[in-house]
Here is the input.
Amino acid sequence: MPDTAQTRVLDLSQNGGPAPIVEMSGLKISYRTGEMSFTVLDIDELALPAGLSIGLSGPSGCGKSTLLNLCAGLLRPTVGSIRVDGEELTGLGQGALDRFRAKKIGYVFQGFNLIPALSALGNVELPMRLSGSMPASLRRARAQELLDRVGLGTKARQKPNQLSFGQMQRVGIARAIAGHPRLLLADEPTASLEPGLGLSIVRLLIAVAKENSATLVVATHDPAVLTELDHTLTMSAINRAMEVSS
Amino acid sequence: MTSVWLALSYLRARPLLNGLTALAVALGISIVVATTTLSKAARQSASETAGGYQLLLAAKGSQIQAVLSTLFFAEAPTGNIPIEIYEQVHADQGVTLAVPFNFGDSFKSHLIVGTTPDYLHLIRRNRRSSQQTLLKGRWPEHAFEASLGAAVARATGLTIGDTFTAAHGFVELPEDLSDHHKAQPYTVVGLLEETRAPTDRAIFTTLDTSWRIHGQFHDASSDAHDHEGRQITAVLIEGRGYADVARLNALMAQRMDVQPIFPGRTATQVLGYLQRGQSLVTSIAWLAALIACLGIMISLFAAAVERRRQIATLRAIGASRATVLGVMAIEGLFIAGLGAVIGVAFGRLMAVAIAWQLEQSNGYLLTIGQAGLAEISAIAVAMALGLLAGFIPALLALREDVAKGLAAMT
Here is the structure.
């Protein structure tokens, strides 16, 4: 039986590396169902360095998506602290968290999650509109530029249902990076794509993140994807709740 | 602004469903607008027609029937009263105007009204018309001369110099059954301008014409004041002041053969009945509009379920609760607003069409006024309901955890 009391510290930003963009400390997420209490995430210390691409690996249900949602401020820890780009998220109210996400987070989803009522251009414009940080002409120009960058410049007026899966994910990447996020989160970005296509999408994601000076965190169970990234973290190494459940 | 942009995008994405929902709102609002517009026109018409007169003397019976018959030319009279009553009030120092009426015959369902030139004075004063306007030609001076109301002239095509024969009673019977007074044709001597009042649908002649037709004027050469035994249908009176009208009312109330009626009061009573009916129809129409707004809510509830993951996505990429709330509220507002505007336009069209149909079929004249506060209120209420219809599903959708929404399959 593993020693669950042992403290695990995982700091990729040590040894003179880049300053951390994500710092977690004594963090737990627990749910209560009737009399039972389940802990799905239990992290002692974790620091993710800025400017790199980091993979989170592990089987389904190991807490990869939960960790990403925590970083995005979509989930609040039951206990502990999480700082993203210097901001302590546990202390932020709902409105401040919304503004934090609009300003600092980009999110790429497994199912693309494009808004079907909007064109490709509209989808890419959306985060910039939400953050309200850019005049309309610049916003439109940047959206078009990003679509050109992901190879969909000619598909700007197309609605998501007129695009292939690969094209939809490219639009998803352009949308995620549009608001100049500091942290780009990708949850199984290749799971809905064919293997060959998935790899090219991940390469595009890494390139776009680097061009925009964003830190990329990818949750994936695909070893081929992990080889493309700067670092890989296995969830079993950072999540003590996995040891308990096993 | 992002909420408006997103809401419009969502609206454009479901044009048929949103169009049909707006149409349902439009139907409810159109009935509300049509009933209130027609009711307003009826009230205005009734108060304009009955409000100008102070006292009506008619045979005993239903006061409403007497008012509808004399002022609106829309009912059979309650009966006849002796000519002496008219002579008595005409000679009264407290009476400034007394207008006698004699009904009995008709032409193509248009009532022939025997009266005096005082009727012309009365309608000129009520309509504030000058001597030069209102009548082309002249007012009848001799028996079997006639001036036609504008609607009658339009419907029959008769003009000055033409002749026609009247039928006895108020209903035109087939030729073989009719009791036309063919031996005594009328000659048209005047055409009244349109008044948008009951005057338009009547034919006016001298008081003695009907007596001559019906044998109450046996000797054409006899003195016009020799009226013994003759009858008229009603007398309209205007007094010098309220005291004179009250005195005449008390005086006439003592008689067995006549009843004094205050037309304004009776018109108010009739309008009260109309109001009750209109309130019922309007309530039902508002209920229909409310159900249509519930339709918006159901449609947006369905949209909220369908967009579960989209709402979570919007939240994940930085949309605030207010933005998401705003999107659905604006959708509800827009659908209801569009429906309400179409409904108001359609309702007013319906009112105009019904008023036109009433005029064509029955000769009732209703003037549809300009759109005003009622229409603006109908649009405002519908939009408020639409806003609420969007707000509630959005609030429920926002209660869901974003992370769960992102994991949802829908």
Observations:
- Residues 55-261 of chain B form one domain.
- The first strand of chain B starts at residue 55 and ends at 58.
- Confidence is low (pLDDT under 50) at residues 217-225 of chain B.
